[in-house]
Specification:
The complex is a heterodimer of chains A (841) and B (92). Chain A is α/β, with parallel strands linked by helices. Chain A is 40% helix and 19% strand. In chain B, strands 1-2-4-3 form a four-stranded antiparallel sheet. Classes of the chains: A alpha/beta (841), B alpha+beta (92).
């Protein structure tokens, strides 16, 4: 062992020393970037703590790293969240690649400006190359005073040798429960010495000479760490192969199921990134918390039918009470609804019959109940429909709740660590209800989709979430620091500082932007050149209507009437329906539009009180207006109820899924008859949804017979591209930005305007800020958007220029695919946002 | 209800953004020792908690500041800046 001289780092600033653990920023206190110290500065010039080369200096001047000739790399980061200052208050005195002397000034900063404009001045001094160090000072330090003593291991010495053609293994997850502590590290080093190649073991930014026991131990690896082996030299390939196998097998330690571990490692290979589908936007940097449900032991044989029957009864009763309590303290109406639905499941006759049959056969209460719920959930799943599959998850959740009560298993309240990113195969409503949401930063699940409970809950809480992530995510170690970028559907397992800071800054800007948008929500959505666009709300309840008005909604562009009575087993009475529509119309008032869509149900969206036969292809079956015309009494009754609200708001009735002109004629005839029967002399406006390509292509034929069109982009996209939006492989391509979809919108608008009719867009596309310029440019008159997004869409409109939008829309119709459209719009967006933020300054 | 919830989460997500706006109006009274080391209450133009660990004060006359007395009064770090601005480092 050739001992390298210990290296003294000099204080880069004067100030008060703090331990890294106390820094109120998890990126640093978690030591994700590296270990070191923190100085609360009293001087304003950051000086080099060691001689070396400037290996990196941020353009914004808030961070710099110096690497010495032995490879010791020290990162200095001035202040917290100072990346947001974008260089203001910092003056760089050196450049990347420049050689600097110890004590040489590197960055000057204006401490008062930073203190007033950033979160903190706390400055981090981190040994990112990972060598161990001792601290030489405490309390107050003066610039240039000895601060730390770094002991460069022999690891560093050999760095140069390896440069050039080092081979790298794929990243692997360390299976050893306590990391590579002395014994496994010795086994590993011994094996490495058997090769001539120079070999390194890498953990994030740190690396160690694989032939040095001390260096490996100094890496301080932990269970679940992602490691890589690199080697340079003749036998590099053989060395990597042998050492990777050794690591995976535990380096002589027994690791849980080696066979599985190997598989897992192969699966994890190259995984510094796991992908899923965005279920709720945003980003978060936090630590992994795996959510695991305990296995329940169920005995099949009962202790007498009467006793077991009573046990089941008690379990059901207790579960009902618990669910009622949960509804009372639910975090939002969405959650309360879920638990109310659960309570109804407890009274489901088929479920109870199934359980009682088994009880009669002498089975235990737990066994009978479990078999009944599992069998029914399987039936739900077997129907191959996403919405029903979600309900299967509900049933399993209720099943588990009752089962625990029967078995007397206590639900232990979760003791969550701070900044938790919850990872689960599937999170059930019961699990999320007992969650301390203050400690949760995000959700990652294997199952579920945009309609799952996790997605609904995450959106309600404004937390990021991704679904559909591969199973490997379940093998991540608890406590591992990860970066969740839900907007891109990504989970970064080895996030780097720049990425974390970028997302952090983006999130803060978004928060500020959001606050500004909400504050200005009542302003009209008028483009800079004076073109007004009506921004209305997509709603499914009176509560949402009221919320939309406080957020600046100018009316209701889509009332999803089928949602008003979703959890009913029986159709609501005509009076009840009329009452609901009238209440909504009154809330809006006579000056605002209310567009009521008639029942839009079908095989894909079943309604309990509208029984229908199973279809092999429900999306191409009896949906929307087709079903209503098949059961005209249902449509008649709904028309009557809607007409009762005439006069309280500007009433519009809209028919979904129209593909044939005859459907419109039939429905209009029924509406006219009902209006006449009620003695109304003025008909409400009648329009159709454009969500089938035939309707869009024939818009000029439909236009004379309607009062308005509203484009349902979700269905229009899936029918135009023949891709299921929920298809795991196709979902990403079933993109409403596809030029084919936009051309159909253009056709529709042209036809409508030629006949003096207005066109709205009520599909998800209208709620995307990115799409607003092209929709306005194509001539769309009304954007009906999801309630929370009203302020955003209105603010977006105000930033635009109609003339520009028309030009960009024309260009976009000529593009080849959705990705190109998004790219073009992103560029345009960046340009408009830039110029408008300049205006604000 | 929803708003309250929303606020709670924003607070959890962005403690700096919300906590500080709430904390700002509640001024930390400086101790008598600190005040006198700064040259007395009448020498104080303004005081403001900033950057998590600091109290930023503006003095009428920076010459009346006594750094030794400040340290004795329990302020570990002092940063004297231009224009009578002084940062007292009070810690987290």
């Amino acid at each position: 062992m050739t001992a390298t001289q210990p290296l003294e780092l000099l204080a880069p600033l004067s100030g008060v020393l703090l331990a890294l653990d106390t820094v109120p920023d998890p990126v640093f206190s978690s030591r994700l970037i590296g270990d070191g110290l923190c100085i609360d500065p009293t001087s304003q010039t950051l000086c080099a703590p060691l001689a070396g080369v400037i290996s990196n200096i941020q353009d914004s001047g808030h961070a710099v790293s110096v690497t010495d000739d032995n490879g010791v790399q020290v990162l200095m980061h001035i202040g917290l969240d100072t990346v947001n200052l974008a260089g203001q208050g910092f003056t760089r005195l050196v450049q990347e690649g420049q050689r600097v002397e110890v004590g040489q000034p590197l960055i000057e900063f204006d401490a008062d400006y930073v203190a007033l404009n950033a979160r903190s001045l706390l400055t981090l001094v981190l040994v990112v190359s990972g060598e161990p160090f001792t601290v030489l000072a405490n309390g107050l330090v003066e610039v240039g005073q000895p601060l730390m003593q770094v002991s460069p291991g022999e690891a560093i010495e050999a760095t140069d040798e390896e440069e050039g053609d080092a081979l790298f293994s794929k990243p692997l997850t360390l299976p050893n429960a306590n990391g590579l502590h002395a014994r496994p590290a010795a086994v590993f080093a011994q094996a490495a010495k058997g090769f001539n190649a120079s070999i390194y073991l890498h953990k994030q930014t740190q690396s160690a000479n694989a032939k040095s026991l001390v260096a490996i131990m100094a890496l301080q690896t932990a269970h679940g760490d992602t490691l890589q082996v690199s080697a340079a030299g003749e036998d590099a390939e053989a060395a990597i192969k042998a050492l990777v196998t050794l690591l995976v097998e535990g380096c002589g330690e027994t690791v849980a199921a080696v066979a599985e571990a190997v598989e897992a490692v192969e699966a994890v290979s190259s995984a510094t990134l796991l992908r899923g589908v965005c279920a709720s936007p945003g980003s978060a940097f936090g630590q992994v918390v795996q959510v695991v449900e305990p296995e329940l032991a169920i005995t099949e044989q009962g202790a007498g039918e009467a006793a077991e029957r009573a046990a089941l009864q008690r379990g059901l009763l207790a579960a009902t009470e618990a669910l009622q309590a949960l509804q009372a303290k639910a975090a939002g109406s969405a959650q309360a609804e879920i638990f109310r639905a659960h309570q109804e499941l407890l009274e489901d006759p088929t479920l109870l019959e199934h359980a009682h049959r088994l009880l009669a056969e002498g089975k235990s209460a737990a066994f009978a109940w479990n078999s009944a719920t599992v069998a029914t959930a399987e039936q739900f799943k077997a129907l191959g429909n996403t919405l029903l599959a979600e309900r299967a998850a509900d049933l399993a959740d209720v099943g588990q709740r009752v089962l625990k009560l029967i078995l007397g298993v206590q639900d232990s309240a979760w003791d969550l660590p701070e900044r938790a990113i919850l990872i689960a195969e599937q999170l059930t409503p019961s699990q999320t209800a007992s969650l301390d949401t203050r400690k949760v930063l995000g959700f990652v699940t294997v199952g579920g989709g945009a309609t799952s409970h996790v997605a609904i809950l995450a959106r309600a809480l404004g937390l990021p979430a991704i679904c559909g992530v591969s199973l490997q995510v379940l093998s991540l170690a608890n406590g591992k620091q990860v970066l969740l970028d839900a907007d891109k559907g990504e989970l970064h397992l080895n996030p780097d500082l720049a990425e974390i800071e970028r997302l952090e800054a983006a999130r803060q800007q978004q928060t500020l932007r959001r606050q500004r948008e909400v504050a200005q929500a009542s302003l009209p959505a008028t483009t800079r050149d004076g073109h007004h666009v009506e921004v209305t709300a997509n709603v499914a309840s009176l509560q949402e209507v009221e919320q939309s008005l406080t957020l600046g909604g100018e009316g209701v562009g889509l009332l999803r009437s089928e949602f008003l009575y979703l959890d009913r087993n029986r159709a609501p009475s005509p009076e009840e329906q009329a009452g609901t529509y009238t209440a909504i119309a009154r809330a809006l008032g006579a000056e605002r539009n209310l567009v009521v869509r008639t029942l839009d149900v079908g095989g894909d969206k079943p309604l309990a009180y509208v029984p229908m036969e199973a279809e092999t292809n429900p999306f191409l079956g009896l949906r929307g207006i087709r079903l209503c015309l098949e059961r005209p009494e249902l449509l008649r009754e709904q028309f009557r109820a809607i007409l009762a609200s005439a006069g309280f708001a500007r009433l519009h009735i809209m028919l979904p899924m129209v593909s044939l002109l005859s459907e419109l004629h039939l429905a209009r005839k029924i509406l006219e008859e009902e209006a006449a029967a009620l003695g109304l002399n003025e008909l409400p406006k009648l329009g159709i949804m454009i969500e089938v390509p035939s309707a869009a292509l024939m818009a000029d034929v439909f236009a004379p017979h309607v009062d308005f069109f509203s484009i349902g982009t979700n269905d229009l996209t899936q029918y135009t591209l023949a891709m299921d939006r929920d298809h795991p492989r196709l979902a990403s391509q079933a993109d409403s930005f596809h030029p084919a979809v936009l051309r159909l919108i253009a056709t529709t608008v042209k036809a409508a305007h030629a006949h003096g009719k207005w066109v709205g867009v009520c599909g998800a596309l209208a709620s995307e800020a990115l799409a607003v310029p092209v929709l306005i440019g194509l001539g769309v008159d009304e954007l009906s958007v999801s309630v929370p997004l009203i302020p955003t869409i209105k603010a977006t409109v105000r930033e635009l220029d109609l003339a520009d939008c028309q030009i960009i829309a024309r260009q976009i119709l000529g593009l080849e695919e959705a990705a190109q459209v998004r790219e073009a719009l992103s560029q345009y967006h960046a340009a408009t946002v830039e110029s408008s933020s300049v205006l604000e300054h | 209800m929803f708003e309250k919830l929303q606020r709670a989460f924003w607070k959890a997500l962005t403690p700096d953004l919300i906590a500080e706006t709430v904390a700002a109006p509640v001024q930390n009274e400086l101790s008598v020792g600190v005040l006198s080391a700064l040259g007395g209450a009448d020498n104080l133009k303004s005081q403001q908690r900033v950057a998590l660990t600091r109290v930023r004060v503006q003095l009428q006359d920076a010459g009346r500041l006594d750094e030794q007395a400040l340290k004795a009064a329990g302020v570990p770090g002092v940063m004297v800046l231009a224009g009578g601005v002084v940062h007292l480092i009070t810690g987290l």
